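Input record, target 12 of the design panel.
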């Protein structure tokens, strides 16, 4: 997307030089690429479990981790925030089994029989309606790629890896029915300006959102990455509110009520807003990006060529530009956008870098289709008119630039630390 193509001739010349170098003596394999012992003769035996539902290779070990300093599950079996291993992902789609999950309102994940589940639409409508899952699947469907991100994603000095700092965002392919289709079927009465979405969790948390958002792009989802929505993600129905803070994408969706004002609801651990205008404007994520390689906790084996790679996204629409700095923000250059930059979806970016072995700092900066530019930590502190010190924490949704410091020995650290 406007970025320069790699010089093919230069790349081939470099490849030839590398190939020539291989004939001069033994070369150590790159980090994490040492051949597994016994790999040449091993076979995977078939099993009923493997046939019924596939498994990944035993050599692939990416896992989610508890987030925020709380164990998951805890001594009572409760699951809190669990973070996606962004550093291990390729492309833009997060596998369903690695998608981040946030605390369920109440105690445990609801075990819902989809045949018994119902979605009610009522309030300021001409015809209150109740839908079964089969009713919804008979209606025209759409499939769209969207990210979800929890407000707990914070670029703090405490984070030791990108999974700890940014692991509460994931991107999946969602399938379902447009909420606007259901509301048109019910008939929206004049004066309806907000809607309240409620899930079937033990504590009936609910979220108020502008009706304009409902009529724009909200989805009532029963599918995720080509299969049914996972239980941790709201089986059998989840509301998808593209670009908004993750808590508004209500899981286990069972009720939508149209109302004429902003309702304060229990919205999980203090997500309450007293002012309706602030609520309407404060839900949407600004432009954001993060380098996933090289990132904190990783090790560069030595000086030379690397491809910097990462993810960018925005609640304001599609990513239009990502810039990379390899000298702590003194100079910036455009990164390459890999694939299509979809609206409110993770977008993969990459940039070629020849590291000379000296200590430096890597940063990425996202600009979205609205022209919004991702800020630095210093710019955020100036905007909120607070001192820039180690205790500074961005109020609301944190989209500040994340720096990674590359030491001369190749170790990578959090630049905020």
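The sequence produced for target 12 reads:
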């Amino acid at each position: 997307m406007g970025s320069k193509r790699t010089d093919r001739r230069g790349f081939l010349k470099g490849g030839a030089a590398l190939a020539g170098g291989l004939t001069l003596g033994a070369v150590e394999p790159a980090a994490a690429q040492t051949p597994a012992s016994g790999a040449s003769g091993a076979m995977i035996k078939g099993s009923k479990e493997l046939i019924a539902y596939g498994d990944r290779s035993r050599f692939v070990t990416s896992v989610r981790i508890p987030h925020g300093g709380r164990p998951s599950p805890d001594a009572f079996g409760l699951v809190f925030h669990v973070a996606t291993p962004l550093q291990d992902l390729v492309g833009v789609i997060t596998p369903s089994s690695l998608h981040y999950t946030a605390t369920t309102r109440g105690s445990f994940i609801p075990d819902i029989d989809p045949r018994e589940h119902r979605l009610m639409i009522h309030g300021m409508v001409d015809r209150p309606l109740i839908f079964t899952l089969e009713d919804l699947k008979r209606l025209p469907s759409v499939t769209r790629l969207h990210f979800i991100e929890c407000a707990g994603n914070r670029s703090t000095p405490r984070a030791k890896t990108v999974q700890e700092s940014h692991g509460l965002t994931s991107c999946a392919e969602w399938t379902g029915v447009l909420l606007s289709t259901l509301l048109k079927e019910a008939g929206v009465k004049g004066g309806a300006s907000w809607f309240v979405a409620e899930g079937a969790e033990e504590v009936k948390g609910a979220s108020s959102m502008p009706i304009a958002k409902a009529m724009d792009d909200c989805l009532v989802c029963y599918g995720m990455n080509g299969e049914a929505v996972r239980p941790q993600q709201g089986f059998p129905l989840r509301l998808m509110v593209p670009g908004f803070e993750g808590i508004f994408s209500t899981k286990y969706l069972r009720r939508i009520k149209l109302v004429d004002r902003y309702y304060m609801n229990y919205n999980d651990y203090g997500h309450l807003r007293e002012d309706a205008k602030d609520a309407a404007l404060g839900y949407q994520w600004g432009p954001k990006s993060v380098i996933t390689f090289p990132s904190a906790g990783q090790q560069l084996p030595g000086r030379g060529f690397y491809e910097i790679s990462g993810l960018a996204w925005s609640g304001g629409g599609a990513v239009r530009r990502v810039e990379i700095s390899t000298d702590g923000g003194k100079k910036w250059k455009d990164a390459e956008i890999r694939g299509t930059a979809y609206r409110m979806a993770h977008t993969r970016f990459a940039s070629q870098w020849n590291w000379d072995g000296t200590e430096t700092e890597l940063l990425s900066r996202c600009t979205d289709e609205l022209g919004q530019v991702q800020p630095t930590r210093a710019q955020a502190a100036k905007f909120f008119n607070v001192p820039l010190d180690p205790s500074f924490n961005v109020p609301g949704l944190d989209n500040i630039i994340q720096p990674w410091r590359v030491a001369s020995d190749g170790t990578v650290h959090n630049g905020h630390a």
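The helical segments are 8-22, 48-52, 133-137, 162-166, 179-186, 211-216, 276-282, 377-383.
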